[in-house]
Amino acid sequence: xxxxxxxxxxxLTKQYxxxxxxxxxxxxxxxxxxxxxxxxxxxxxxxxxRMLLGLVFATSGRxxxxxxxxxxxxxxxxxLVGAMVEGPGAYGHLSGRANLxxxxxxxxxxxxxxxxxxxxxxxxERVGLGGVDDRPVKAYSLGxxxxxxxxxALLHAxxxxxxxxxxxxxxxxxxxxxRDLLRALNEDGTTILLCSHLLGEVEELCTxxxxxxxxxxxxxxxxxxxxxxxxxxxxxxPDA
Length: 240
Ligand code: ATP
Description:
By secondary structure, the protein is α/β, with parallel strands linked by helices. It has helices at residues 45-52, 96-105, 113-126, 142-154, 172-187, 199-205, 223-226; strands at 5-16, 19-25, 28-30, 34-38, 60-65, 68-69, 81-84, 160-164, 191-196, 208-213, 216-222.
């Protein structure tokens, strides 16, 4: 990473009974990174990011987000963090705008009705939902829902955006749009931490990569150090 630390964990561990979902993880996300947390299903990515958000409490270890320790026992989501993780989702019978307005009203944001209205409009505009908004969310495509989730995460101009599989279920065009949006947000100064099980996605999008395997962070590097100068290294396996 280039800038100062934004997310730091040391010895972070989460156990569910006998299952160790996350084991002794030392994560380092720097300011301005597009950090890709890579790993197969069940490797612990979701549990890890949910701990960063205070949605799941660690069994042991420590977490600092933007210089502030995340308390282990009292859930607290920092206002400067935006997140798109699997959750309760939106109200299907309401429009995207109405959903965001509800969220905004219950969030840390302030301002007059006009300020709030503008904040919601800008978030919708930013993800390309400005025009289609009057439809109820249940009429949205999966891609539109994904983008609505992103708009919700962007409402309060977070410095850190945490996303769990942001392109899951999207068609190629939707995938391209979400990736372009994430790059643009990052260029405007937002640090991005995303989970993915797709090596290609992390290669294309990310500046830094962490690889999870059975709860452990087994590799953490800048992408530039992972890529060989001539691209991918050819690996030959002996003939069977
Ligand atoms: P996915 O892509 O499927 O979300 P993941 O890499 O995010 O996978 P986790 O969902 O964090 O992995 O799961 C890691 C391990 O912890 C798995 O073995 C899972 O079964 C277990 N686990 C996760 N949440 C719980 C829970 N609430 N109770 C018990 N076990 C859990």
